[in-house]
Write a structure and sequence with these properties.
Length: 124
């Protein structure tokens, strides 16, 4: 079973993401910010990171460089998401592999995650 790290401060999102990805045999672990994310990365093999850019007290784009410095995340795709499509370019230029607008359709989430878990790295 592969692990997906969901960095988002809304606790109700984890069960929805897990439900959307149920057919992929993945474990979705949700953390609200950088500290929890680093703890998961340092203790578990993560196959994909889903990173919200609006985290209440933290900004996902401020967290992204810290995540990308982690040796255990080398080659692990990061999918950023935000309700503000204006952040797309900023997220991609900061190192995110892909950007999803929020709210995202379940099919879009499934398709994106399937693509990255199958090691097909699409270009943004």
């Amino acid at each position: 079973m592969r692990t997906i790290l969901l960095v988002d401060d809304e606790p109700e999102l984890q069960p929805l993401v897990a439900l959307c990805l149920d057919h992929l045999d993945v474990n979705v672990i949700q953390v609200p910010g950088l500290i929890g994310g680093l703890e998961v990365i340092r203790t578990q093999d993560v196959a994909l990171v889903l990173l919200d850019l609006a985290l209440g007290a933290e900004d996902g784009l401020e967290i992204l460089p810290h995540l990308l410095k982690e040796p255990r995340l080398a080659g692990v795709p990061v999918v950023a998401f935000s309700a503000h499509d204006s952040r797309r370019r900023e997220a991609l230029s900061s190192g995110a592999d892909f950007f999803l607008g929020r709210p995202f359709a379940p099919a879009a989430l499934r398709s994106t995650v399937e693509t990255y878990l199958c090691n097909d790295r699409p270009q943004p």
